[in-house]
Amino acid sequence: MPTTESADNDQLFVLTAVLLTPAQFPSVLGDDYPEVCAGLGLEPYAEGYGLVLGQDGDGARWTVATEDVSLVACAIAAWDCGMEYDLSPGEHSIVAALPGWPLALAVSAPGVPQPHDPEPRDGEPAPLAPPDASEWGPAQRRLGADEIALQWAAWREQVDDDVTFVDPGEQPHKGVRRVLDEARGYVAEPPPPGRVRSSFAAGDARTLRVDGPGWSMVARTDDIAFVLLDEEPGEVHPVGRGPELPGLLSSLDELAARPV
Description:
By secondary structure, this protein is α+β, with helices and mostly antiparallel strands. Helix content is 25%, strand content 23%. It is built from 6 helices and 10 strands; from the N terminus they run E-E-H-E-E-H-E-H-H-H-E-E-E-E-E-H. Strands 1-2-3-4-5 form a 5-stranded antiparallel beta sheet. Strands 6-7-8-9-10 form a 5-stranded antiparallel beta sheet, with helices on both faces. Helix 5 crosses helix 6 (245-255). The protein is elongated, with a radius of gyration of 20 Å.
């Protein structure tokens, strides 16, 4: 199993790693990059971080934040392809060793005690813990948007091509209209990094992920959008192209953070 060294030189058995950059971060942790960094006690540097989650020799959960984003990205790519990769950030690149895990993991390191939070030490922050996504709220809403982005084709098949909530003369859902107005405001005044993210999609299209206070939107630049609202548990609102959406999506894509 890959290992690295935490700040106190205890061996860390690496279980997984994630990127924390303006373009890529665990959506469940926040609506934008600075919010996620604040929750972890990290400065929102533009270059971002890699987060390495593992256990020490006593089985305690630790999250190591490293500035070596490229190393973590290479490890994730290798693991996704089923290849081995020894993720061992250099000591000089480690920014923090944080107790606990910010994400729920169903795996553990062999040969060490079961995962548990380390004993608190003077001056250390409280152990990290995953957001409560058991009930509808911001965390579950963002996870729902993640699922739509991953399963776009399945969700798109459920929507008629002529669906619209934005044509002139229509009476759109008030919550959806608010989302579109706030998203349009991002074009006039760019939001915090990570509120608008753009990733690859089929053909020349892009998948857009846009978040705001109490809402998430997933869209394809050549197609429709889906909106989720905190105030409407489990509801997914399709937004047809109409005359407004194409231009809005194009403008959002221009200001979006993109993976390197």
